[in-house]
Amino acid sequence: MSKDEAGPADLWQITWQNVGQLRVLHKHVFPVSYQDPFYSDVVEKHKEHCRLAYYADILVGAICCRVEIEDGRPRLYVMTLGVLEPYRRMGIASQLIRDIVAKVEQEKEKSKISEIVLHMQTSNTPGLQFYERHGFENAKLVPNYYQKIDPPDAYLLRRTVTS
């Protein structure tokens, strides 16, 4: 557990003991469902780049990222970032993204991660504004990225990692 002085939440690493809480959070926050392999991978392969946000001992948000290779170079892909509706606009999502960005920037020499990327549904205007405030740029439109939600198009957002 760590307390970020610049944010209201306590941030915890994801473990087998709390991954069930992440599953419940995702069901309430996202329009798509994630299957068992997603949660196993979060704990076994990606926990260094995932955080749970607790506010007054209640899980209210999370960020889950993975390292992937694109054009021979590692990059961090934000799989999910979400906060329960009653706890939005409190700075918790900002705290989560700042924590991950800081970790990647601190480890850039070792990890060689040069960018952070994510896909976002084109209809999510508040989400786009949020990421732009945190240094992400709209890199391109990806038609028909989503299979089971409407609209199906996504933006690919990108932020360069500095050291």
Automatic annotation (TrEMBL):
InterPro entries given in the database record? Acyl_CoA_acyltransferase, GNAT_dom, N-term/lysine_N-AcTrnsfr
User: What's a GO cellular component annotated to this UniProt protein?
Assistant: NatA complex
| Family matches, as SUPFAM superfamilies | Acyl-CoA N-acyltransferases (Nat) (SSF55729)
Q: What is the lineage of its organism?
A: Eukaryota, Sar, Alveolata, Dinophyceae, Oxyrrhinales
Give GO MF terms, alphabetically.
N-acetyltransferase activity
Q: Which residues form the N-acetyltransferase domain?
A: 9-162
- Asked if the record carries the keyword Transferase, the reply is yes
Q: Which UniProt keywords apply?
A: Acyltransferase, Transferase
Q: Does the keyword Metal-binding apply?
A: no
Top-level taxon in the UniProt lineage: Eukaryota
Q: Which Pfam family, giving just one, matches this sequence? A: Acetyltransf_1
GO BP annotations listed: mitotic sister chromatid cohesion
Q: What is this protein called?
A: N-acetyltransferase domain-containing protein
